[in-house]
Specification:
The complex is a heterodimer. In chain A, strand 4 and strand 5 form a beta hairpin. By secondary structure, chain A is mainly β. In chain A, the strands form 2 sheets. In chain A, strands 3-2-8-6-7 form a 5-stranded mixed β-sheet. In chain A, strands 4-5 form a two-stranded antiparallel ribbon. Chain A has one helix at residues 33-38; strands spanning 6-7, 15-20, 23-28, 45-46, 53-54, 67-70, 75-77, 88-90. Chain B has helices spanning 2-9, 40-43, 47-59, 120-130, 146-156, 170-175, 177-180, 184-199, 250-254, 295-312, 319-342, 348-351, 367-376, 382-389, 402-413, 434-440, 444-456, and strands at 15-17, 65-67, 71-76, 79-84, 87-92, 96-98, 102-104, 117-118, 132-133, 137-142, 160-166, 205-206, 210-214, 221-225, 231-235, 238-241, 245-247, 259-262, 267-270, 283-285, 358-360, 365-366. By secondary structure, chain B is an alpha/beta fold. Chain B is 38% helix and 19% strand. Chain B has 3 domains: 2-102 and 246-340, FAD/NAD(P)-binding domain, CATH 3.50.50; 104-245, FAD/NAD(P)-binding domain; 353-420, Orthogonal Bundle (Arc Repressor Mutant, subunit A), CATH 1.10.10. The longest helix of chain B has 24 residues, at 319-342. In chain B, the strands form 8 sheets. A 5-stranded parallel β-sheet of chain B has the order 8-16-10-11-12, covered by helices on one side. A 3-stranded antiparallel β-sheet of chain B has the order 3-4-5, covered by helices on one side. The chains are: A mainly beta, B alpha/beta. Chains A and B meet through strand 1 and strand 5 of A and strand 8, helix 4 and strand 9 of B.
Chain lengths: 97, 457
């Protein structure tokens, strides 16, 4: 699956392992969850009111487009949540975002 | 930040409640955790200003009670309801300075809900706070000074910027050249960005008549009509589009501040005196949350507003500093007036919105549903239309669709924009866990409102 984001400025930071729909993925310390996911995937969630996906919009915690589901039951706003080791993001199996 | 600094200097210990994890707001946004300096190259001309703002707290650490990661989600009398890292909290205040800032003003266009479409501000944050681009082949669309800036930042970072489209006419900028020279340094920066963008092979096209994004499940093509009416297709995998800025004024609304309609920028702002006072005693307003002025103005206003607070507390203030700030703000106001006229609201983009287009991103409510409510149910006011259609009732509370919905409603009703009103702010101003809302309630009436809002999303 094509990634939406691309890392342009390399910066230091320890690797942060997490999963997307059970598949292992890597992020870097200081990555927001939206960055971590969209560096691997084209979208963050299924749209709950129609056949479409969503990938965030404003990135400043205002539009609420980037909520994602985690396997532990939490629902978090990906643009204002820092990725943590072991986070398990559900896109396809997460039900409506 | 500048308000807190001025209050600390006067011997007070202000509390700064910041929703972000680190200081800087949106313009001088920092990565969420300190991961080394990679953003100085990205701030460009503004690097020294960003550094200065980031240093304010370090310089008065023990005199400012800075609380990052704190969302103010309700305001009731002299109490704020907070969502902190540790859960619910309350804060009483005797004076309140609201510096809630602005966000991108969005307008719907065909394809704007496809993954890969972001706001210009979002595109900028991806780069400066995360060091990532929103795509490999990126197109930008705007109606304000953010367009040439973001274009410049992306091109400089080596991203392939395939189009930069300004929905406002070039002639408007030429006509305002004199007024724009009220801030010669900013004017020069604008020219420099334009020149550098040309060097990178990106020429901003002005006066575009229409746009749409095409793609099956994702952004594939941007289609636009130029000022002469010719249609262009450009392949891309990401679009950054927004049309000026809008104030984040929900807390001012909850505080009971009086609002006024600004015909030039076609939006409502809480009323603010030149000194920073709102219509409510003890509540002050600084920065873009009360009138779009930009980062430089926000710094001046923050400092000026703090002096008004000190005056109202009966403390001595430096009259020369007051005069200096007032002069600087008056000059900036002349510049802003010209800038607003140089980038008029691109109303024409809304006229082309078909009934099937989604206006509310949160819940997928279409322009047709809104128009039908206006026609069949006599919804002639936006809060009435919200009740009937759920437009503006989703998770974002109308932050994204509010302006467009009001414009479309006014058009459908044959009314002036100010006559359809504005969406009222409602607590919680952003989504919070229901458990937090239950802790935060202070009356049955409040409880019902907050829980209903939470349950609704």
């Amino acid at each position: 699956m094509a990634a939406q984001f691309h890392r342009i400025v390399d910066r230091p930071g320890t690797p942060v392992p997490f999963t997307i729909d059970g598949e292992p993925a890597d992020a870097r310390q200081g990555d927001l969850l939206i960055t971590a996911v969209l560096l691997h995937r084209p979208a963050l969630r299924r749209f709950e009111f129609g056949a479409a996906s969503r990938a965030g919009f404003c990135l400043m915690a205002a539009c609420q487009d980037c909520w994602v589901r985690l396997a532990d039951g939490r629902r978090v706003r990906a643009c204002s949540t820092v990725v943590e080791p072991g986070m398990a993001v559900l896109i396809e199996g997460g039900g409506p975002g | 930040m500048r308000a807190a600094e001025a209050l600390a200097r006067a011997g007070l210990k202000p509390i700064v409640l910041d929703e972000a994890e680190r200081p800087g707001g949106q313009v001088y946004r920092q990565p969420p955790v300190a991961v080394g300096r990679f953003s100085s190259a990205i701030y460009g001309f503004e690097a020294h200003k960003a550094d200065a703002i980031h240093r304010v707290l370090a310089d008065c650490r023990d005199r400012v009670d800075y609380r990052p990661g704190t969302l103010v989600w309700n305001l009731f009398g002299d109490r704020l309801d907070l969502l902190t890292r540790d859960g619910h909290a309350e804060q009483r205040f005797d004076r309140l300075i609201l510096a809630t800032g602005a966000m991108d003003r969005s307008l719907p266009f065909p394809g704007w809900t496809l993954p890969g479409v972001f706001t210009l501000g979002g595109a900028q944050i991806a780069l400066k706070a995360q060091g990532v681009s929103i795509g490999r082949r990126v197109a930008f669309v705007g109606a304000g000074p953010l367009l040439p800036l973001v274009t410049h930042q992306y091109a400089k970072a080596g991203v392939d910027v395939v189009a930069a489209l300004d929905a406002t006419p070039f002639g408007a900028k030429v006509a305002q050249a004199r007024g724009l020279l009220a801030s010669p340094a900013t004017f020069a920066k604008g020219l420099w960005y334009t020149a550098r963008n040309r060097l990178h092979g990106v020429d901003v096209k002005h006066g575009i008549q229409s746009l749409r994004v095409e793609g099956d499940t994702h952004v594939e093509t941007l289609v636009w009509r130029d000022a002469a009416g010719a249609e262009h297709h450009v392949a891309c995998d990401a679009v950054g589009a927004s049309f000026g800025l809008r104030a984040e004024a929900q807390l001012a609304d909850l505080a009971g501040c009086r609002f006024a309609f600004a015909p030039d920028s076609r939006q409502w702002f809480p009323e603010r005196s030149a000194e920073g006072r709102s219509s409510v005693a003890g509540v002050y307003l600084a920065g873009d949350g009360a009138r779009i002025g930009g980062a430089d103005v926000a710094e001046l206003q923050g400092a000026r507003t703090a002096l008004a607070v000190l005056e109202d507390l009966g403390r001595a203030v430096d009259r020369r500093e007051v005069a200096r700030l007032d002069r600087a703000l008056a000059q900036q106001a002349r510049f802003r007036q010209a800038l607003d006229a140089a980038y008029p609201f691109p109303r024409h983009l809304l006229d082309a919105i078909g009934d099937g287009e989604i206006v509310c991103r949160c819940e997928g409510i279409t322009a047709g549903t809104l128009r039908q409510a206006a026609r069949d149910k006599e919804a002639r006011e936006v809060n009435r239309a919200k009740a009937l259609t759920r437009i503006g009732m989703g998770r974002c509370q109308g932050r994204v669709c509010g302006e467009a919905a009001a414009e479309l409603l006014a058009h459908a009703c044959g009314s002036e924009l100010q006559d359809v009103g504005r969406l009222r702010g409602q607590p919680p101003v952003k989504p919070i866990p229901i458990a937090v809302a239950r802790l935060g309630v202070r009356s049955l009436e409040n409880a019902a409102g907050a829980l209903a809002e939470s349950a609704a999303r």
